[in-house]
Amino acid sequence: MSLANAPADLVADRPVPRPENVDAAWIETMLAGAGYSVAVAALSVERIGTGQLGDTARFRLTYAPGSDAAPATLIGKFSSTDPTSRDVAAAWSLYTREVRFYRELAAKARIAVPLCYGAQMDAAGGFALLLEDLAPAAPGDQFKGLSNHHAGRAVREAARLHAAFWEQGEGAEYRWLGTEAGAQPFYTPGIFRSTWPGFRDRYDALLSDRQREVCDALAEGYDVYDRSRPRPRCITHNDFRPDNMLFDDDRLVVVDWQSVALGTGAVDVAYLIGGGYAPEARRAAEPALIDAYLDELGGQGVTGYSRAEFEADYRHFTFAGINVAVGAAMLVQRTERGDQMFLTMLDRHVSHVLDHDALSLLRE
């Protein structure tokens, strides 16, 4: 694992434990770094989540008398055991990005994120975050999509994130996020062109003619899609979808910050709306959601970004979810749920591209 961007004080001199090997001493050490003096009298662990790039567990803790008042449950996020997924995480510094987001950006982001009680990495690719347990808040579901109420909350959260870092991304303190000129963070012409043929062969019997047409066109015209956008850049989430959000009656909390990078804010909005709805429902909800995003962006103090500019960016990034569906399917550990999710995403995002006549952009 490349640790070029990893804070030196987080690289442990011994391996980060797997969830099943976490013991009281490790929890105590992590919490001590967050300012808690505790002695763990008992702990239990249960696996949760369906992440493709990491493993997640809930720790239930009992503290000895005299300990500080500390959380009774915590969420641990750990590196994947799958070598392919770990290689992808290393190539794109995904674990480092998430650690640095919580350390350096979360407090400035203007949106709700879990509290982080500790982070650790090791030279072999091990990674762990100890996070606030937000239960009973429930995660969204990529298959069910979003209600209009939840989608409205989500686009406003996106606007707050983008506004918090609007035109700030070129500073030296953000260099670790990447300063590449391409349109969509992480996804280059080589990534899509190398993964699409394998995706097409793997899922051949399940693909429609229009899905093949759109993906073939994107592969051919990807250099046009990849041109840098003439817009202010900001910090973007880049996997802004229902599975990475926790909802309750009072708030929406955004999780999974492994893909945080510098980009154009519209990438998160188009990706969320295009993938969070079945096509007919998306067409009905889309105008109001765009209004909500732009209203919140303006309310957060962003000026000089017209509706016409946003709509051009939004149309461009209708391709963003296709990139993720195809690329991630072929780059991370394959699972049955992952297959269903990536095919669902592809279908919805292809419809989004066609509804906005975005194929014509590839010929400009």
UniProtKB/TrEMBL annotation:
Pfam family, one: APH
Organism superkingdom: Bacteria
PANTHER family: AMINOGLYCOSIDE PHOSPHOTRANSFERASE DOMAIN-CONTAINING PROTEIN (PTHR23020:SF41), UNCHARACTERIZED NUCLEAR HORMONE RECEPTOR-RELATED (PTHR23020)
Classification lineage: Bacteria, Pseudomonadati, Pseudomonadota, Alphaproteobacteria, Sphingomonadales
Protein name, entry field: Aminoglycoside phosphotransferase domain-containing protein
Organism: Sphingopyxis macrogoltabida (Sphingomonas macrogoltabidus)
Aminoglycoside phosphotransferase domain ranges (all copies): 96-307
